Amino acid sequence: MRASLIQIAVSEDESVDSRRERLAALVREQAGAADLVVLPELWTTGAFSYERFGTEAETLEGPTCEAMAKAASDAGVWLHAGSVPERDPEGPLYNTSVVFSPSGELAAAYRKIHRFGFDEGEAVLMAAGRELVTVRLPETTLGLATCYDLRFPELFRGLVDAGAETLVIPAGWPERRRAHWTLLAQARAVENQAFVLACGTAGTHAGVPQAGHSIVVDPWGEVLAEAGPGEEVLRVSFDPAKVAATRDQFPALKDRVLGLGTPRR
């Protein structure tokens, strides 16, 4: 299976419309070169541009999803279009990841469960999702997570229990914690015996330098490909059958012990 992770910079100097057009063109350029294309988190606004969440929020029938659906169809690829600030018709905002099929149909939407910011930013401006989401592709089953979710292993265990074999994580991860980004991507791959495709942003937005370094990790924790700090299309081929082979060869997931209860004091 061939994947392209499109690591772009989010700049206040570029309009959302221009960036949308630029990214759609980059998706179309993957025609014939990729089966799956992955974009970063909140690339329309920037993950730290809190004041833009409300002004740029749109429904899943809005201009971003419309443009990405068309790009997926034109390229004939599965497209994980990163995430957008979604405005629910009933009012709340969500950080929502979307996946489109090669025919341009909306295959899945995942509302980010773990919102970053503690008592500010995304944590107070956006509502939390409540559902784990997987997407069945012909070659593999994707498990969806977003950025800060990467720090919470129980979410990924739930995705594996739901059949996930390839974990896809768009992000707007800051440069100052880049070591955590790499470490956690490898940890999630090893502990779940799954592929991890983690796509971040480059450049600086809202004064926050971004880590870049999008990464693809195999079920043994080996880094198959890693981007640099700048804009880049990271291309990689991987064999989804390696997940089942790894789990058969080293069946650690069968030794999980659940329901341990409350620790003694």
UniProtKB/TrEMBL annotation:
Where is each CN hydrolase domain found?
Answer: 1-240
Q: Where is the secretion signal located?
A: none
InterPro entries (UniProt xref): C-N_Hydrolase, C-N_Hydrolase_sf, UPF0012_CS
Keyword field: Hydrolase
A Pfam family reported for this protein in Swiss-Prot or TrEMBL: CN_hydrolase
Tree of life domain: Bacteria
Q: Which GO terms describe its molecular function?
A: hydrolase activity
Q: Which family does it belong to?
A: Belongs to the carbon-nitrogen hydrolase superfamily. NIT1/NIT2 family.
Protein name per UniProt: Carbon-nitrogen family hydrolase
Lineage of origin: Bacteria, Bacillati, Actinomycetota, Actinomycetes, Kitasatosporales
